[in-house]
Amino acid sequence: MSWYTKKLAKSIWVFHVSASPCNNCDIEILDLLTPKYDLERFGIKLVGSIRHADVLLVTGILNKKVAPRVKYIYEQAPKPIFVVGVGSCPASGTVFKGGYNYPSKVLSEISFDIYIPGCPPKPEAMIEGIMKLVEVLNA
Amino acid sequence: MNWWYIFYLLVFPGLLFTAILGLLVGWVDRKLSARVQFRVGPPILQNFYDFIKLLGKETIIVKDSIKSLFVLAPIVAFGVLVLVSTIIGVPLFFERGFNGDIFVVMYLLMIYSVMVIIGGGSTGNVYSSLGAGREIKLLLADELAFILICFVPIIKSGYVISLDGIVNAQSRVPFICSVSGVIAFVFGILCVQAKMALPPFHIPEAETEIVEGPFMEYSGPLLGYWKLNQYMMWVFYPFLLILLFLGGFRADGLGILWFILKYLGIVVLMVLIKNTNPRIRIDTAIKFFWRCAAPVAFVGVILAIYGV
Predict the structure, then answer these.
(1) Number of domains forming the structure of chain A
(2) What tens digit of pLDDT does each residue of A72-88 get?
(3) Domain with A16 in it
(4) How far is A61 from chain B (nearest CA, A)?
(5) What confidence score (pLDDT) does residue A104 get?
(6) pLDDT attached to residue B6
(7) What does each C-alpha distance from B118 to B2, B210, B218 come to in angstroms?
(8) Is residue B249 a contact partner of residue B79, using CB atoms and an 8 Å limit?
(9) Residues linked to residue A45 through DSSP beta bridges, in sequence order
(10) pTM score over 0.80
(11) Which candidate from A7, A41, A78 shows the least CB-CB separation from B40?
(12) CATH code for the domain in which residue A93 is found
């Protein structure tokens, strides 16, 4: 299995879920595909369908409306799938934590593998976070 | 039963050769596209990693789909493409063929499009069925021009309908050194672009619009087979163009280098067309093929009959 995960680490296809974000993180994620950062040199590319994905990239505050949808998408993905939370919102809940629509129960059912905190995180920080996922897969 | 046929089908011009060369040429496509966009691009074995990874993922059979068609479509399409690459490769490299194999190639290429339509239509997904419908329209658009273009080398070689006969007829002067040959070659590249569903004709699988269309619901090994099919087309379509217009392959010293140059030239030309053109609408594509490409190809056929 370790042989396979090493191959998986070299070709990570990412599906991007915008779970009610403020769009800051999404713009920074698209920066990763521009000539300056170019994540395709690591074999990472954005795909349009969850059935093709290896990583579920979640941005935004997972509130009561959207968290069941994220869980639904997670269940439709072919395993193995890894969940990465980008931004402070999935990591901590920021100012929305404790609000009436913050669903702590559904959140505990989606297991995030890596959080990349920041509001928004710099593209360099996102590359570092994804490389940490690659290191975990290679180990 | 001749054992050479199994070697042809499974190893040299067939399965193994086409799959490995296709994945490598797919890297050329991705790297060149990246360089055009001032990016670095993926490493050379990237497509092999992608394929191995897809083989190891879970396959999800969609609940609302017609399950037998959903599973069989990519596998039958793969078999069809292996057969096509064998039928094109054997006359090209070994100068052996049978009468009428050029028509067999045309029919098999049509069957591949039909498999895409069946695979996309069987999933029960809205985007997939939209993609399948667009594939039907694109097939209707490019088929007439493609067949007329294939007639030009047949007529110029003196009505020979086998691929090895067409290669032999070009032993002194390739068909591109004539007016009708140039016309047919130029529109042949555009037709191949449409048959491979590359930009500007990637209407059936428009990623930003209907998310890969017919392939949207596929996952795991079945998606891997679709991807492999797409990369295998990078091998035999340029081979077909070389065979029909550019004088084929000669096994003496300089001939091999010359063949590699011809092949890479066609691939680079197709990648550059792919990278410099935006996607056109389906009605524009049909208008282009029926009002521009097919009449011009017909003129090419008439010129070929008069020997120009």
Answers:
(1) 1
(2) 888 888 888 888 888 88
(3) 2-138
(4) 25
(5) 67
(6) 83
(7) 35, 17, 13
(8) no
(9) A13
(10) yes
(11) A41
(12) 3.40.50.12280
